[in-house]
Write a structure and sequence with these properties.
Number of strands: 4
Number of helices: 2
Strand content: 15-25%
Oligomer: single chain
Strand order of the largest sheet: 1-2-4-3
Order of helices and strands: HEEEHE
Radius of gyration: 20 Å
Helix content: 25-40%
Structural class: alpha+beta
Length: 108
């Protein structure tokens, strides 16, 4: 075994053991991510679609000094509004109201 292979093997073993310890501490998530803390208060809007009543979560963050403008941040698939925390904080400092909905089925 070469020195590079040895170093790589040690790195992989450390990585796997660290992640195994972290995985044992994880709690299972429910469909609405009720145990996940979002960075801003979450509200819900009922939506009727194709004969079903659905619930859409969204964050409506308001700045301390409003500039009168609103920005809506829309996430892609496999993400949710939670991922916009840092972006929203910057926009709030600039005076924007920031709305971050979770697409139904992604997030709360």
């Amino acid at each position: 075994m070469s020195f590079k292979q040895l170093i790589f093997s040690v790195f992989v073993l450390l990585f796997v053991s660290c992640n195994a310890q972290n995985l044992s501490k994880l709690e299972p998530l429910d469909a609405e991510l009720s145990t996940v803390n979002y960075p801003f208060p979450v509200q819900f809007k009922e939506v009727k679609n194709q004969g079903q009543t659905l619930k859409m979560a969204f964050m409506n963050a308001k700045p301390e000094k409003p500039n009168g403008k609103t920005i809506i941040l829309l996430h892609g698939k496999n993400f949710n509004g939670y991922y916009f925390e840092e972006t929203a904080k910057v926009l709030l400092k600039e005076g924007f109201r920031v709305i971050m909905p979770d697409q139904i089925g992604f997030g709360k």
